Amino acid sequence: MRIGELLGAGRTADVYALDENWVLRRNRDGLDATHEWAVMSYLSAHGYPVPRLGPRDATTAPCDLVLRRLTGPTMLESLESGDLTASEVATVLAGLLAELHTVPARLSPQPEDRILHLDLHPGNVVLTPRGPVVIDWSDTAEGAPALDRAMTALILARTAVDPRARDAASACALALLNALVPHFSASGGMRAAHLAEAAARRTADATRGGAAHKRHDSNNSHDEDGGDGSIGGNGGDVRAHRKRSDSRDEADLFGRAVALVTEVM
Asked: Residue 222: CB partners within 8 Å, gap ≥ 6?
């Protein structure tokens, strides 16, 4: 397997070109991608829109995933460009979460548990010619669907309350949060306990070192390593600040985000 140019670098992985159709996502520090591969395979078998997986056998390094390139803008890019409205994005995003939560848990014996993405925001949905495809399954878990809804709401709210975010990014995040909440309420809503758990998870993740810069190749093909969950286009500035911020700063931001979600509900 000939590894080509570096296409992107995310929180935990680097993405390299293999050819015009396939990319290699390699986890740094040898982090095993077997669980993520198994979840994506399971979801693909249930018809959920995940990137097509390449071959994986005994010769494949545990930290590697071979994935089909995805061509098209992210929903975030379409929202910020004005090609999609907040209402349109909310409808698609809520639908993707609702569809995901129809898939039974792969491992949990609890009948009410479902597959959870736990980072499903507009930057992790690529609008391909065959429809939306959800990327970045590195945070996936199993549990109550309400936690997934709470996590998406919290991600948006954090951008809305972040003083370092661009005004346009904050406004987009707030508009999308307001548009999403009625969909989430119709799907079962989310309780204070779910928001608290989501905040604790995101605070712990952010204070482990934040996220690195990510870029895409010139053909606008997207890799399969999501960014840091920030909806805005303030990219490097926010991520650099986040890397330097301590747990108290992050806990304060997520506390304000929880308050905003609670107010919107």
From this structure: 69, 70, 71, 72, 74, 126, 135, 216
Mean pLDDT, residues 83-112: 96
When pLDDT is averaged across residues 16-34 and rounded to a whole number, the result is 85
Structural tokens at position 148: 């997934």
What is the average per-residue pLDDT within 151-164? 94
Alpha helix segments (H runs only) across the chain: 34-45, 75-81, 86-100, 145-161, 167-187, 192-206, 235-244, 247-264
Residue owning tokens 């919290």: 154
- Distance, in Å, from the CA atom of 263 to the CA atom of 128, rounded to the nearest integer, reads 35
Q: Which helix (H) or strand (E) holds 220?
A: none
pLDDT at 228 over 50: no
- The stretch 191-212 carries a mean pLDDT of 78
The pLDDT confidence band at residue 249, using thresholds 50, 70 and 90, is: confident
What integer pLDDT is reported at residue 237 of this predicted model?
Answer: 43
Give dist(CA 92, CA 99) in Å, integer: 10
Please name which of 110, 177, 172 lies closest in space to residue 145, comparing C-alpha atoms: 110
- In 3-state terms the chain splits into helix, strand, coil percentages (rounded to 5) of 45, 15, 40
Alpha carbon distances (Å) from 120 to 18, 55, 111: 26, 26, 23
Asked if residues 66 and 150 have their Cβ atoms less than 8 Å apart, the reply is no
